[in-house]
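User:
Note these tokens:
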Amino acid sequence: MTESFSVLQKKLQELESALNDALLLPSETQCHHIVSEGIKQRFIFIKNLLAAEIGSHPSKPQYLQHIVKRLDKLEKAFEEWDSFRTLAFDQIENASTCSCTDSCFNDDGEAFDEMGSPNFEDPEKFSQGFVGDSTALLEFDSDLVKERGLVENDEKESVGIIGFDRDQIFKSQERSVMNGGVGRLFGVMASGIVLGMVLMYFTMVRFSGCFYYVKPASFTVPT
């Protein structure tokens, strides 16, 4: 046995292990295509290696015939697994397509056209049914208009409240600034008045000796 046979034997064991892992995957796996492509590449590599090994041994030894039979069994098992998973996947897609197709019909089995309106065979039935349901449609449209109006009114009220709050903030700030200015003005005026009174007092005390006082004449009270 050559070194190439050892490599072939190792690759065959790896292929068998990968196929066993694939057989254990659940039926609803989403990576079926990736796993299938990987196993196919392994088969191609082993077949090329086996063909080269057989070409180098024209007598076809017994161990090579054993590998050929083993590889055939693995390939059949893989084809059954791959076809079963592919069929199951197609059935899932068909089921989803059928459910999507069924949803295109209403409860009475009437088909809808591309624009979403019912496709009636009899135009008179359609006109009568439409007239009968016109009141409900109008009520539904009026409800939508009311709801939309309420939403718009709520948005306008919210914007008005925000604007009102902003104006109130600005007014309160201006009022606080004005009150602070008036307070400072009154404080300065009061300080000026007190200072003027003090200066007037000192002035009067200082110049009080410069004035002459006339003592009133005393008269004798007759007895």
